[in-house]
Design brief:
161 residues; alpha+beta; glutathione-dependent formaldehyde- activating enzyme (gfa); 3-stranded antiparallel β-sheet; 10 strands; binds zinc ion; CENP-V/GFA; zinc; metal-binding; lyase; metal ion binding
C-alpha cells in the first residue's frame, strides 16, 4: 500500500502514514481552540509507529500539558498543526493527525464523537455523542484509541519521538 502524505497548509511540513487512521473525533478543548485557531480540532488518532516524520522537517514540538500531555508538532513556517504525539495510555503511544491534512482521504473517515464539549465555542447540531469535561472525554476515547492502535501491528519503522 502506498504511503499517505499529510502536509500542513503551507506544505513545508508533512508526515507520512502507512495507513489511514480510523478514529476521528472533534476536540473542543481550549488548547485545541488556540492551536488550531478554530472552535474545535478535527483529528484522527493512530499508533505512533504508523507515522513517519521526514528526516528533514520543519515541524516544531512543544508540550501542552492539559490535554493528555500531548506533544504538539506545529509547522515552523505556517504554524499549523502537523502531528501530535501522546503517551497518555501506558503502552499505547498515539499520534494525532489533523484530518484536514489528509485531504480527500480524511473526509472518508467517519467522525465518532465530540470531546471537551463543555468548553465549546458553539453548539454542534449532529448526532454524534458529546462528552463534557476531561474525565468523560478521556474515558470515551480509551476504547477507540486501543482499537486504532490494534490496527497498526506492523514492525516499527523510523518512529519519531
Ligand atoms: Zn506549514
Ligand atoms: Zn483538544
Amino acid at each position: 500500500m502506498n504511503q499517505i502524505i499529510a502536509p500542513c497548509t503551507c506544505g513545508k511540513s508533512h508526515i507520512e502514514l502507512r495507513h489511514l487512521p480510523s478514529f476521528r473525533f472533534f476536540c473542543h478543548c481550549t488548547i485545541c481552540q488556540r492551536v488550531y485557531g478554530k472552535p474545535y480540532s478535527d483529528v484522527a488518532a493512530t499508533h505512533m509507529r504508523n507515522v513517519t516524520l521526514p528526516a528533514q522537517h520543519a515541524t516544531r514540538f512543544g508540550k501542552y500539558k492539559r490535554f493528555m500531555a500531548l506533544d504538539r508538532g506545529l509547522c515552523g513556517e505556517c504554524g499549523e498543526p502537523v502531528v501530535g504525539f501522546m503517551r497518555y495510555l501506558p503502552g499505547v503511544p498515539l499520534a494525532m493527525v489533523p484530518v484536514a491534512n489528509l485531504g480527500e482521504q480524511g473526509a472518508s473517515i467517519m467522525p465518532r464523537m465530540h470531546i471537551y464539549y463543555g468548553t465549546r465555542q458553539r453548539d454542534i447540531d449532529d448526532d454524534l455523542p458529546k462528552y463534557e469535561g476531561a474525565l468523560r472525554s478521556i474515558t470515551a476515547c480509551i476504547a477507540p484509541f486501543l482499537a486504532s492502535c490494534a490496527k497498526s501491528e506492523d514492525p516499527p519503522k523510523n518512529v519519531a519521538a
